[in-house]
């Protein structure tokens, strides 16, 4: 038994260094170690971290503290030049700015925009509501005020549109009666009220008590679009015209006061409207005298029948 114990003891001594060698190898790192770069410091909590020898100093601005409250009566920093006399006080910064402590960001919050409201209400006037409307806008609206369109304005606008349409129709209308107003033709115009011819007196006055005399005859100059100039046969220097709100025979024939726009009625009568003065017509009263052109509408006082006296084209109409 003693020999066996000796043999086992020798075997254990031989195995023990092998175990120590394996243990030492297991503790060795799997990869070769490398020194950290120069200036590297482990972050807090990592192995090898050591607090700095001196405490960290706060940024320079931290000692300044929050800015002083806004003073509306202060102009610039202390010691700054004062504003000129009568200058407006300084304005406060827009809402949303505030002091942010060190380490935070000063954020500007855009204030919410105030919506603009536009109201449309009926316009009122004495005697009842009108046909127009008034549009009012809140402060800051692009309208910037009050806009009104009354019933009278609508009526005037409608009449203006109707007049332009009628003028366009008259200017393009073609008929046998209107064809008599060709350049060079000699015509007589008989009033529907007096049944007498329109004439120019030697003093330039106009009435509708004429007959077959040259003063009651006119030579036509057609300007196109049924617009004509009427020159008196008795005195070639006289032209029918509307001057200063009066129908006269002393027109010079060179301006718009001597130009008339023709309009034919359903019953083949014609009216003479001044091109210079809108809605001014040559009119005749019951006594044969001319009426105020501005007060004469397209009724019987303004209507004339046409008689052709002479035409350079050989057409003569006997009355």
Automatic annotation (TrEMBL):
Stored InterPro entries: IL1/FGF (IPR008996)
Q: What's the domain of life for this entry?
A: Eukaryota
Q: Where is the composition biased (Pro residues)?
A: 39-71
Residue spans of biased composition, Low complexity class: 28-38
Stretches the record annotates as Disordered: 25-102
Please give the Gene3D superfamilies that the UniProt record associates with this protein.
2.80.10.50
Specify the protein name: MHC class II regulatory factor RFX1-like isoform X1
Q: Which organism is it from?
A: Branchiostoma floridae (Florida lancelet)
